[in-house]
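Summary: Need help interpreting a holo structure output

Steps to reproduce:
1. Submit the protein chain below together with the SMILES for pyridoxal-5'-phosphate.
2. Request a joint structure prediction with the ligand placed.
3. Inspect the structure token block that comes back.

Expected: a single structure record containing both the chain and the bound molecule.
Actual: see attached output.

Input attached:
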Amino acid sequence: MTRLHEVDWNNLEFGKYFTDHMLICDYADDAWQQPAIVPFGDFQISPVALALHYGQTIFEGMKAFRMEAPSGGEVINIFRVEKHYNRMALSSERLCMPVVPREVFTDGLRRLVELDKAWVPRMEGSALYIRPFMIATEARLRVKVSSSYRFAIVATPVGAYFEQPIRVKVERTFVRAARGGTGYAKCGGNYGAAMYPTQRAREEGYDGVLWTDAKENRFIEESGAMNVMFVLDGVLVTPPLSDSILDGVTRDSLLKIAERLGVSVAERPVDVEELKAAFACGQISEAFGTGTAAVISPIGMIGIDGVDYALPAPGKPGVGTRLKEMLEKIRHGRETDVENWNFLVK
Ligand SMILES: *Cc1c(COP(=O)(O)O)cnc(C)c1O
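--- attached output ---
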């Protein structure tokens, strides 16, 4: 295992190095057991653990940053702990998994980050990426709801993302999520099912897909594993939340920041035809994915039914960049945290 002094801080590959410790909390006999912080290492798991066969697995992805304490000195800020906890609870319910107690989640994060805080990187744009997750551990080959689970938290230092605009293809055949499905849950199965269409898009020269709705393949839903936003006629437009769209913490944060900056916001369905028309008359100025990993991932090209439409090259910093800058300032304590998003750890 890589130790702290061996990490190449200038070339952090996402999810390659893990901090010294992890938190584990098991669920058995209808109750959550005592959480424990242990050295990072492999789990021992039955080959017939239900998670491995039937996909009862969920996760979260969040970040911690170094920040100047309001009282001077340095603290670590874990961003939007509560919203991530609530979403994990929602995912748990959808997958018939027990909800991890709020204190186990919150205190676990605090203790783990405090203990491994030397791993929170210092370079601009970098962060400690934190991955809470839960798997079904009961050893049984029959399809059933597991009676035992393991909740765990691991963390990995990540560097700044280089914002190379990506090329995406509007996906009209395959779907990520349908009404009544698991799209709003952060569960492993959603990712497994998205790989094939994504690979096909890559073979066609795109970086990923823009998912459309399962019923008509007509309304934009998400960009790969990110939420998606457009700037149409100066208005920040994003599809409304539904059971087929993940309630992204970054999406929510950027929408609130947009309001704070006086940017007009519309949460409404985005028809693929509307996008085509907007390209035709030059009304679309920006498109970007939003998520914890990259904050915003600019889209440079959208492929619609075999035609590639290029987004205009940004002249001055666009709406996306302004929103991202404000978000970064809040997370590093350089702008007031009016919404109480920051969770400070010593
Ligand atoms: C995690 C995720 C997002 C982004 O959510 P954030 O909370 O902003 O990181 C968007 N869409 C999908 C499908 C996701 O899994």
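--- end attachment ---

Reviewer comment: The chain has a mean pLDDT of 96. Residues 166-331 form a domain with the D-amino Acid Aminotransferase; Chain A, domain 2 fold (CATH 3.20.10.10).
Status: needs-info
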